[in-house]
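Q: I'm writing up a methods section and want to include an example of the input and output format. Could you take the sequence below and give the corresponding predicted structure tokens, formatted cleanly so I can copy it straight into the document?
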Amino acid sequence: MSKTSLALISDEPWLNDFAPAIQKRLKDYQTALYQINESLGSILEFANFHDYYGVHFEPVRKGWIYREWAPAAQQLFLTGDFNWWDRESHPLRKNHRGDWEIFLPYAQYKDTFTHQSRIKVRVIDAQGRDLDRIPAYIRRVVQDEKTHDFTGQLWFPQEKFTWTDRYFSLEAIAQMPLIYECHVGMAQEKLGVGTYREFEELILPRIKKGGYNAIQLMAVMEHPYYGSFGYHVSNFFAPSSRFGTPEELKSLINTAHQMGIAVIMDIVHSHAVKNVNEGLNEFDGTDHQYFHPGDRGYHEGWDSKLFDYGKWEVQQFLLSNIRYWLEEFHFDGFRFDGATSMLYHHHGHVSFDSADKYFDEGVDEAALRYFQLANTLIHQLKPHAISIAEEVSGMPGLCRNIEDGGIGFDFRLAMGIPDFWIKTLKHKTDEQWDLFELWHELSNRPKKEKSIAYAESHDQALVGDKSLAFWLMDKEMYTSMSVLEQNLVVDRGIALHKMIRMITLSLGGEGYLNFIGNEFGHPEWVDFPREGNNWSYQYARRQWSLVDAEHLRYSQLNAWDQAMIELVSKHQVLKAPHGEQLYLEPDKKILAYERGGLVFVYSFHPTESYFGFPIRMPESGSYQILLHSDQKKFGGFERLDPTVNYQTDQDHTVALYLPNRVVMVMKKGNKK
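A: Here is the clean output for your methods example:
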């Protein structure tokens, strides 16, 4: 056993009993990588099949080649505008690899096989069915407004997009990502679908002003049902045309880079839409071309198809997909959706009450190995790219280097934190809040694995659930958010909203995520147009007019969010080691800790304020308040004086005035 393969175990001695399993995972990965290198020279070449399959112009032969992998199909025909949708005239033939292909000479087709013309591939499949399908590697898919039919579209723009992001650097962002999770379509206030261009012009400046250094774009890959939030993907290489053109998406990303903002893609490799007309399902007539056969290939909870990650061609498809988005669109990394579902045959629907669950027969080792290959590819192509796993089981080594026995992700989403907040707000009174449980939830993570902390994401904003602001203030948000009136429910909600977000941001991880609009307590859930709401866009938008209205308290929450993001950015708090607890008093609901040279002091008590309260500081000296949530501009009551110097005594303690429901951030020395 090599020493490097056991670094994970050296750091986590409780894994010692599983050393053989961890070593086997490393060996299986090394074998897979060796086979790839032996076959094609490198993983980069292995992940380049989007330049082989699909439609491409061949300058040497002067024409277009179209290739498709459909091993069990009986016959394929190319049809479209170029041949007036003749379903017989252009049959594909099998080449030496066993792939279907057809060549269209430029001289013959230059006037018909053109930019924006539409195509499909007619497949006589293994079952003898005669179906028109969309090419698997198509780069653009559009929907007919009248028939609602989805069709592949040739995309040969005369002018290639000119990137101007050459000097954009990811390095600093990758060390402390502050992520703004967003959806292009629902980002505008209008009752309709927002566009890439509108997002670039209207939303990116808001994000920049808010201090976030990264955005996480949802629903980029084409999906036939808008209401799926982008998670039922049909066409993996096509950016959704409902938001605009590929060039407009590139322009959005290019502009973000010019603003110093990284763009992370919410990539869906965990499952695929089961639709036969739009997607990959039964493309060649079998249920096991891209997916597992039978029940194993179907996710009952998601009503979707599950990839066979152990299959060579599926690995090529998905890894090529990663390379395509990184290179063609300059994405800066990925948030892998549904990582827990991928890692386990049971999709995580068990209680992880034993370490055995991370290594037993419930683990899909092929999917785990796929993640290792994917992270290898990502960091070879873009060393500082950000790779995030949506993973809730606590799989050990998820965010450790592969050579150390890990899986290679950079960050894990701290999914337990928002669950904790919802459970607390839903089931406990303020007097019942358990600060020991709170500290444990926010600080208990492996020392050498990084987490993205968040108080709420899109999951908590969806219809059927409630955002934190809704849990805190409910219907009062519609009637009592004026700065000119006092309302006890709103006062409590505003105070706790600020405290929850600050403690999550400063204590919970090495990165942070916020869902679009939640920073100012957006008052409504997210509900996409569907039959159940008469296809309304009322809740599939963001009401920016609320936060722009200075007479409403939404602007106060927004001001707080900007202030706390600026504070942790300036002091590089999330790059610091885990927070060190300085004080915790469960009955008085007082908590204090140090991180990144700052001292965070919270008074969660619903009614009591304390005068001259002793809090131990990390070292002796004079301390000042850098930021506190009781400022009037943040919706507070101005009970604290930030000009006061707090001098430690012989026990390194300072005597503080702690009003109820307030957080203050202190620093030794002057306010720099």
